[in-house]
Amino acid sequence: xxxxxxxxxxxxxxxxxxxxxxxxxxxxxxxxxxxxxxxxxxxxxxxxxxxxxxxxxxxxxxxxxxxxxxxxxxxxxxxxxxxxxxxxxxxxxxxxxxxxxxxxxxxxxxxxxxxxxxxxxxxxxxxxxxxxxxxxxxxxxxxxxxxxxxxxxxxxxxxxxxxxxxxxxxxxxxxxxxxxxxxxxxxxxxxxxxxxxxxxxxxxxxxxxxxxxxxxxxxxxxxxx
Length: 225
Description:
By secondary structure, the chain is α+β, with helices and mostly antiparallel strands. Helix content is 24%, strand content 50%. The chain contains 2 helices and 8 strands, in the order H-H-E-E-E-E-E-E-E-E. It has helices spanning 2-36, 55-73, and strands at 81-90, 94-108, 111-126, 129-147, 150-164, 170-187, 192-201, 216-224. The chain has an 8-stranded antiparallel β-barrel with strand order 1-2-3-4-5-6-7-8. The relative contact order is 0.11. The model has no long low-confidence stretch (mean pLDDT 77).
């Protein structure tokens, strides 16, 4: 009887151990499976499809972009204006000193135009006699910067000259000019500059006080907004 009880105890002990080992063996693959099943966030590329636009919306967008570009590129009229003046001098039998304020306008980055008003003090010699005059005039010009600060200059003008008659009386006469030449500009700041150019008269009117093809040296300065 004691042997039978001992056998039963041994059997149940062996059976319990077998069950425990079986549960452990079954548990290990599940744990391994869990480890292998680590969730990795899926990465996906989201393709954004362009929104469909109607022809009316497309036209409106194009016009709006064009308007913005024109608004950015357009320069107000005032900002294209500049103010300055020139100083001209000629010495010899006919001495002339001219001061001319200028109102200019920039047509293009390399093309300028404007209006000038002149006042000239002159002195002319006739033999041993000399006469002084006060003259005035008006003119316009076109200046093209062909190479950086080097420019070509054309300026039609008209002057009212005071003259002395044989009877020592004074009279006035208008004389036309068409000056043409070239010059150079030197900037002293972003908005200011000085210029020097040499001009020749293309008309050579008979009443002009200048000799034919006599050079006219003009020194100017200007500033813009």
